[in-house]
Amino acid sequence: MTALEVRDLRKRFRAVTAVDGISFTVGDGEVVGLLGPNGAGKTTTLHMVLGLITPDEGTVALFGKDLQRCRTEVLSRVNFAASYVSMPGVLQVDELLNVFAHLYGLRRPRRRVAELIDLLDLGPLRRQQFRFLSSGQQTRVQLAKALLNEPGLLVLDEPTANLDPDIGDRVRAMLLDLAARSGRAMLITSHNMREVERMCDRIHFVQSGRIVATGSAGELAGEYGVADLEEVFLKVARG
Amino acid sequence: MLAWEVRRRRVVGVVLRDLYSLRHNPPRMIEVFFWPTLELVLWGYVSLFLASQQVPAVVAVLLGGVLLWQVLYRSQGELSMAFLDDVWSRNLLNTFVTPLTTGEYLTGLLLFGALKTTLGAAMMSLLALALYGFGILSIGPALVPFMVLLVLMGWALGVIAIATVLRFGASAQVIAWILSFVFQPFAAVFYPVSILPAPMQAIAALVPASYVFENLRTLLTGGRPDWSDLVVAAALDAVYVVVALVYLAAALRYARRRGRLSRFGD
To answer: What CA–CA distance (Å, rounded) separates B227 from B207?
Structure first.
């Protein structure tokens, strides 16, 4: 089954066209990346997928169901993490995860929280308040939150943007491991070309609200006659 | 799993978030008691002074007004603050991408707000009794409808404050602090509606709290409450609640359409 089907999405903010007819799918277990320069429309697209922004035109279907009509049902199978979103700083790690486990209506919230604390090696941090954690630790907590409901689609907006190369690499390895083990579909945006190369089965280049190129990292490099994705990025971004 | 059971869990999630937050934030706990206590002490001594000047029933009237005004004010304030907590902690996007419905979110905020309002009101009532010999229960059975009517108006104003922040962005959050006070002169908390000029009386007639405070004074000065007044107040409350919910739904639609919800993550 297709985890996500986006069809002909359009969004204008006054005179600015943020998204201009984007269509793509994310299959079960597939990791899809949206690449593009700042202001290309990547985050607006993700936020339309998550129901935070209503599209002017087009549809978003999650697991075959329309997001607008079946919002509560489909959002219980999706989760999200982003570098620009935080969490209530005074709450302890285990409390935060317990709160979100309840918000996702999980049947055994404490058990699931314990599993994720184990999986993401958060044991020593479980009684720490979120505000006192380092960026890397906060990202791990955000990812634990994003995995609470065992989402069929995980939406990650620049998940490693605030991390140093070492922690960023560990997080990527962990996400890849999760994708391989659970067959979880992922939709990712990132400015880190190596991250996208390493993680994504398919990449959509977005520019001025449109998808201008699609393929695997190797296919895109071949198509543009360059060595790697970074050069593809520069070539596309500079026209 | 039954749908209502899942709903219950999501509401519990909202309550838990606020409960944990309060537990780790002692200054918030102080706030629950500080302002009500301060108001009570100030107005208590003002009323004692006026009583010494032979103004009849002044202690009961002023203290009753202070106590019941706090019920309205805290009901609105706690609801708005719980929402603003999500804004300030940049957690709003995390909350809005969960399957939580607007109704469940509001229910969770209301439950926790009601708990804090009850704690504050109980503390004030005990202090009023200890310091000035004024027992809130002397109001009698009418206390129940009085409280319900004020809580409903406070909740409606709280929802309006939330909707305004969603509609106009975080910079509009000042509304959360001032909205109750906009209504205070018309609510006739400390004076009768008849003392207001005619245009203000016309506005007061549209404020549910004015009927409560008028009847509170009547009752504390030996009269009997006019139940038809309370029916009018209940009808007005119903209008306030419906208007608030419609405004919230419209503000949420607007925020989603204009991308304002996304900007709460900035």
So the answer is: 16
Q: Is residue A136's pLDDT more than 90?
A: no
Cα distance from B153 to chain A (closest Cα, Å)? 28
8 Å CB contact of A103 and B7: no
Cβ separation of B20 and A102 shorter than 8 Å?
A: no
Q: What burial class does residue A5 get, using C-beta atoms within 10 Å of its C-beta: 0-12 exposed, 13-18 middle, 19+ buried?
A: middle
Does the pLDDT at position B74 exceed 60? yes
For the segment B48-70, what is each residue's pLDDT rounded down to a tens digit? 877 777 776 788 888 889 889 99
What is the edge-to-edge ordering of all strands in the sheet holding A16-27?
A16-27, A2-13, A57-62, A65-66
Cβ–Cβ contact A53 with B under 8 A: yes
Overall average pLDDT of the B228-250 stretch:
97
Residues of chain B with C-beta less than 8 angstroms from the C-beta of A108:
none
pLDDT tens column, B150-189:
999 999 999 999 999 999 988 899 999 899 999 999 999 9
Residue A92 DSSP symbol? B
Q: For residue A198, what is the enclosing H or E element?
A: helix A193-199
Q: How far is CA A237 from CA A32, A231, A232, in A?
A: 19, 10, 8
A129 to chain B nearest CA, in Å? 9
- Give the span between the Cα atoms of A221 and A194, in whole angstroms: 13
Name, in order, each residue with C-beta under 8 angstroms of B246's C-beta and a sequence gap of 6 or more: none
Chain-chain contact of A105 with B14 (C-beta, under 8 angstroms): no
Which chain B residues have a beta carbon less than 8 Å from that of A43?
A: 262
Prediction ipTM score: 0.90
What are B128's two structure tokens? 């009023």
| Position B2 pLDDT exceeds 70 | no
Which tokens is A106 given? Answer: 């999980």
Q: Residues A159, A190: contact at Cβ < 8 Å?
A: yes
Q: Do A53 and B89 touch (CB under 8 A)?
A: no
CA angle A200/A205/A211 to nearest 5° reads 125
Distance between CA atoms of residues A232 and B100, nearest Å: 41
**B98/A103 touch (CB, cutoff 8 Å), yes or no:** yes
Alpha-carbon separation of residue B15 from A100, B10, B116, B207 (angstroms): 11, 9, 12, 30
CA–CA gap between residue B34 and residue A5 (Å, rounded) = 53
Q: Report the gap between the CA of A1 and the closest CA in chain B (Å).
A: 21
How distant is the Cα of B111 from the closest Cα of chain A, in angstroms?
Answer: 15
Q: For chains A and B, count residue pairs whose Cβ atoms are closer than 8 Å.
A: 113
Among B24, B96, B98, select the one facing A104 at the smallest CB separation: B98
Cβ-count burial A204-215 (b if 16+ within 10 Å, e if not): bbbbebbbebeb
Are the CB atoms for B20 and A100 separated by under 8 Å? Answer: no
CB pair distance less than 8 Å for B93 and A52 = yes
Separation of alpha carbons A68 and A74, rounded Å: 10
